[in-house]
Amino acid sequence: MRTSIATTTFLLSFLFANSHLQAQVRAHEPVILTGERLPDWTGVPVAEMFLLAFVDGEWHQVGFQVDERDPDGSYTNPDDGAWDANDELVFQPQDGGQPVMISTWLSDPDSSGFPRQRIDVADPVTESTTTFYLYRSSSLLHDDVPGHMTYDADADLIQSQAYRAGFDDSLLMIDELRLGAPDAEPDDILDREKIRIQGQILAFPFTLTEEDLAPQQLHTIAGKVRVIRIVEREVSILTTTIPYTETKYFYRSFFGAPPASLTVDASMGVTGFRLSYDLTAAAADASFDNPNNTAIPVDGMDDSGVDTTLSTEQQTNYWASVTSLDWSLITTARFSGIAETATLYYHDRTDGSTADGTVDTGDQESYGDNGVRLENPLGGEAELISWFYVAEPGALDGPTASSYMQNPLTVENTSEEAAAGLGELVALWLEDHPDTGLPVSVLDMVDLVSGLPGG
Ligand SMILES: [Ca+2]
Ligand SMILES: [Ca+2]
Ligand SMILES: [Ca+2]
Ligand SMILES: [Ca+2]
């Protein structure tokens, strides 16, 4: 027993000695821990949950968010205020800290009466880790730690330190994107999100645009870490009206649609589909890149020789980037298996035309309008992922963002009980405490025992 703890101590010391040399866990994607990963916490009041990180020898509360979902999985219907299997704990990896000994417990007596969860987040791309601790306490108060997101409900505006996103009043679709910190007052580089749905039912051909996806209701859930935007819509194809729900998540420098299993219904007669994002003249100093094209100038002037092919591998691990001197906007996506053919949609002309012969929407100018066109959907289920990364210029490129999508952050959580810290301290009696660098004293033990229930 003693040997194994001493070995652990050695390994921990080694880890700390090297911690300053380690790469950082990438900062874009959030960490999401669902209740099924924390079954021991079922029934814990959400208000008694605290997320902390141990940084520079001290505990710090971390900005986090618990989004409860009702038994049907809805974020918008009220749940019960208690942690359960489908609720989500959400936080950003850059807020993490170091792993500590169990005896390094938060100095809050009530928290010693409950197990804590050690949460280790690992980034397989940068081979780095960071650690959080989830505590339960009825006596601790929530610090007013700064969040990563703000949401202005009246203006329907989402703001982080990396971007601001705004939405069309009537369509409720994204039509404003300012990349950079708010005090830099960046320009709006997005005209709008564009959608085309083409098909034929019996002898009747149809083409729908984003303007036909009529919004019925908007729900938003806003916290310190993310804004969830849920729009209930109806689309009418000839005489059939189909209701559907569009859900998008906005994090500090990362936003888009959650991974979804898409069921393609061939009976709707859809033969072609396009999703693209058209920029504005404010993006005219930028260039477009994807695996088959390098530095295509975004300037509203037609570009010859753009390669629109996308191999199966490029549909599985799609990336495209638009980069200026001030910002990078990178798309990653996965849509292989949805359609017989998938091609890059790219259009850079200011004459009101489109690259697929459909009627243009928006401001009748296309600046680096880029996305994907799908022809002849295959029946059945397919995985669909589509995310945007916002980065400082040069800080992130398309291939790296694609490797992020292929190698998500991994999360391991372990339950720890304060009482186990005493045995750990006794085993360390003649050694230095790895978290403080000081010899373990009787006072350390008294401290810990006095914090234990009944101590
Ligand atoms: Ca729930
Ligand atoms: Ca709940
Ligand atoms: Ca051009
Ligand atoms: Ca436009």
Characterization of this structure:
Residues 1-23 form the signal peptide. Keywords: Signal. The structure is a single chain. The chain has 455 residues and is mostly beta strands. The chain has 2 domains: 2-142 and 419-451, no CATH class; 150-406, Beta-galactosidase, Chain A, domain 5 (Distorted Sandwich). 12% of the residues lie in helices and 42% in strands. The chain has 6 helices and 26 strands. The protein has a 9-stranded antiparallel β-sheet. A 5-stranded antiparallel β-sheet has the order 3-2-7-6-26. Strands 13-12-18-24-23 form a 5-stranded antiparallel β-sheet, with no helix packed on it. Helix 5 (420-427) runs antiparallel to helix 6 (442-451). The longest helix has 17 residues, at 2-18. It is elongated and about 85 Å long. Residues 1-6 and 9-21 have low confidence and may be disordered.
DSSP strand count? 26
The count of domains is: 2
CATH architecture of the largest domain: Distorted Sandwich
The average pLDDT score comes to 92
Number of helices: 6
CATH topology of the largest domain: Beta-galactosidase, Chain A, domain 5
Stretches with pLDDT under 50, minimum 5 residues: 1-6, 9-21
Radius of gyration: 25 Å
Ligand set = calcium ion
The end-to-end distance, rounded to whole angstroms, is: 25 Å
Instruction: State the major sheet.
Output: 9 strands, antiparallel
Helical content band: 10-25%
Q: Classify the secondary structure makeup into a structural class.
A: mainly beta
Based on CA inertia axes, which overall geometry fits?
A: elongated
CATH class division of the largest domain: Mainly Beta
Give the strand line-up of the largest sheet.
14-15-16-17-25-22-21-19-20
Q: What share of residues are in beta strands?
A: 35-45%
